[in-house]
Amino acid sequence: MDPGPSSHYETSEYDPAYEWPGDGERTTVTAWSSLRLLVLQSSILHKHLRVAVLDAYGEAQIGRDHAPVGSAVPRIRLKEMEVSKLHATAYWDKKRREWAVVDMGSKHGTFLQSGRQLDLEPVRLSPPRVASIPRPLCHLDRLIIGSTTFLCHIHEDRKPCVECMSDGQGDVPLFTVPKDNSPIAGKRTSESAGLEQRQTMGERRDPKRALTTLKRALLSRHHEPSDSSLPSSTRPNATYVDRSARRRAMYPGSQYDSPGVQSPRGDSPGISKPSLELAQLSVPHATPSHAEAPQSPGPLSDNNIGRKLLLKQGWQPGQTLGSSTGGDSENGSGLVVPLEVTPLPPRAGLGMPDKTGPPPQSFHQWREDGKERRWESMKSTASGAG
Length: 386
Description:
single chain, alpha+beta, six-stranded antiparallel sheet, five-stranded mixed sheet, 7 helices, 11 strands, 19% helix, elongated
């Protein structure tokens, strides 16, 4: 016997949402118990945010990123690196008639501590990067995600208690709320930028005309009159300034032959009177007070590092470096033959042996050398046979 329609209705699952509200005032019947998450501890959420009200939603997400635009599922945002983009999801299980939580495969995990056994350690729902099975949420259970600890308040009668009562000021935002209740910042309009006057005047900028004006301005620079074509009254004063002479006059150089001893030669660099007068004439700002007469350098102190190095190399005070003493090249201590500099192969360092071989031969020379070698071998073979 075929089952009738009544048998089909008897096996179907009962849902209070399908009940007839009656002929009187319609009342909205919600199929789930109310869930509110109290913030016990958090280093991310503001101290004034104390409760997340999820009474009107059968599913809520917890993650680091904002909820997608247009999404109807609320999301509690915990902006810290220990929280994944979509960390966990709490939802109402219709079959079991209870709230459950699922770890969505986070790296640092979701921890759940039973409210009945607070002395036990929190339990991790799943290994890293592995989604967990649904775990039931009970009243006063603690949900730990990152540095935030939530206390679950579940009421079957949908009436909040004193602890989870909300005044509307400390509610955790469930959707993206613009700052200061203003629209999301975007491109400014012409009115906000103060450009409404130009549009009302009708003076719209023509891009072709602007490009033509720019070309004319650039080309006109090449046809500007030079300084020679200008009258003498408007011509700029181009006076040559010898900065080298001014620098030599202000900072005279020291003797370079012997450190600490004046050179016996008379060709040492210095500032003569004609050069000083020329510097003063060419540089009007260089007054004689700035030009100091060259002073003979004094002897080096015993603590001078250069003096110590020279003494270790055989130098004595009063001797010159690199030249003969008294003009006698035979008895002098200076170098007679200059040092020879041997060029190294490209990219070769100091101490590398010389591996340069004979110069390469041309193709014609190589052929002639080969003929000569063959001729010598034939002569030796013929002489040996004779």
